[in-house]
């Protein structure tokens, strides 16, 4: 069956206003005169009455002791200090009686009408005591608000801290190279003068018996430490000993109270120390087969033997003439154990029941 195409009802038109008023464009000039006679001084006085005293609501840093990298200082007031249009303008903090001492390279700028920020070119130097001061006579807000009293705040950046030290454990030489990496610039000679090296019997090695390691050697010996930390130039000291240390002795490196920094006048207020051990005289500590060892009291004929020492060996000095076997062993060969520089392996054609 054929049906007529379905078509929905049309949308109802929006209602029209009861009366359409025609106005000319552009509109004719009005005969009315506006009264723009505003008393600016009266408005200023009104704002001043409502403003109240000027207050520093927040400041950063707020800690007395700063143990992190600091590159900005901020002051936030409770009243607008400048017009919005002046935020990007350069300013002279002396006009507001604001000072940071000692002076460092950087720039003060407004980050809003109420917040003033100092941005150091790099960062605030370590080991330095800073004073942030705002003079109540010169610091006046844009609406004439004044501080009731001078703002005065002191804070200090960190004194030298050791980030890395080497060596630890047992050293394989009697003239080890020691390395200390600091978190800030230091004077190598100044640090060397303050270091103390004490061995286990309480005897202190004189500083005259220490000597700095040259830069090339230090970079080769301690490359992993230097590459793992950025900007390590002038932040480390590497030294060695003019004379051999005692064997089988523990030595402690001490950085005492009063150690200086190259960045500021403040000195360390606590002691730091780390220790290492010199190797013992060479001796055999284990062997295989070993009748005292239940698991390795004997071996099958022709099976390799081994000797284990307490120290690393200079394998270039090891040869068969150093060892004597009774009875004689045929097919004797010596090899340095792979992955163990303290062990020697003996290959042989040993006989049974011998």
TrEMBL record:
Task: Indicate the segments forming the SbsA Ig-like domain, all copies.
Answer: 53-157
One Pfam match = Big_5
Is Isomerase a UniProt keyword of this protein? no
Q: Which UniProt keywords apply?
A: Signal
Q: What is this protein called?
A: SbsA Ig-like domain-containing protein
Supply the source organism for this entry: Rotaria magnacalcarata
Taxonomic lineage of the native organism? Eukaryota, Metazoa, Spiralia, Gnathifera, Rotifera
């Amino acid at each position: 069956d054929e049906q007529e195409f379905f078509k929905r009802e049309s949308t109802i038109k929006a209602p029209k206003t009861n009366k359409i008023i025609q106005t000319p464009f552009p509109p004719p000039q009005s005969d009315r005169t506006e009264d723009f006679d505003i008393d600016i001084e009266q408005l200023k006085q009104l704002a001043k009455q409502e403003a109240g005293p000027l207050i520093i609501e927040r400041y950063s840093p707020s800690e007395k002791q700063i143990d992190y990298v600091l590159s900005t200082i901020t002051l936030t007031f409770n009243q607008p200090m400048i017009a919005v249009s002046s935020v990007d303008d350069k300013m002279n903090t002396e006009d507001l009686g604001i000072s940071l001492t000692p002076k460092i390279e950087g720039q003060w700028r407004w980050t809003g009408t109420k917040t003033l920020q100092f941005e150091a070119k790099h960062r605030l130097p370590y080991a330095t005591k800073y004073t942030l001061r705002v003079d109540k006579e010169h610091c006046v807000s844009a609406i004439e608000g004044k501080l009731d009293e001078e703002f005065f705040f002191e804070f200090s950046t960190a004194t030298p801290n050791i980030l890395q030290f080497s060596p630890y454990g047992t050293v394989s030489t009697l003239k080890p190279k020691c390395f200390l990496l600091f978190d800030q610039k230091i004077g190598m000679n100044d640090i060397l003068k303050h270091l103390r090296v004490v061995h286990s019997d309480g005897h202190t090695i004189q500083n005259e018996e220490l000597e700095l390691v040259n830069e090339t050697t230090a970079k080769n010996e301690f490359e992993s430490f230097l590459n793992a930390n950025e900007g390590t130039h002038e932040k480390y000291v590497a030294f060695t000993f003019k004379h051999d240390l005692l064997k089988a002795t523990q030595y402690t490196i001490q950085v005492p109270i009063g150690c200086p920094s190259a960045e500021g006048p403040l000195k360390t207020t606590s002691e730091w120390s780390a220790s290492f051990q010199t190797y013992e005289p060479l001796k055999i500590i284990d062997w295989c087969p070993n009748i005292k060892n239940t698991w390795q009291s004997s071996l099958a004929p022709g099976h390799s033997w081994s000797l284990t020492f307490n120290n690393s060996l200079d394998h270039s000095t090891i040869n068969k003439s150093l060892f004597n076997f009774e009875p004689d062993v045929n097919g004797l060969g010596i090899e340095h154990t792979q992955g163990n520089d303290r062990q020697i392996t003996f290959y042989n054609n040993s006989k049974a029941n011998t």
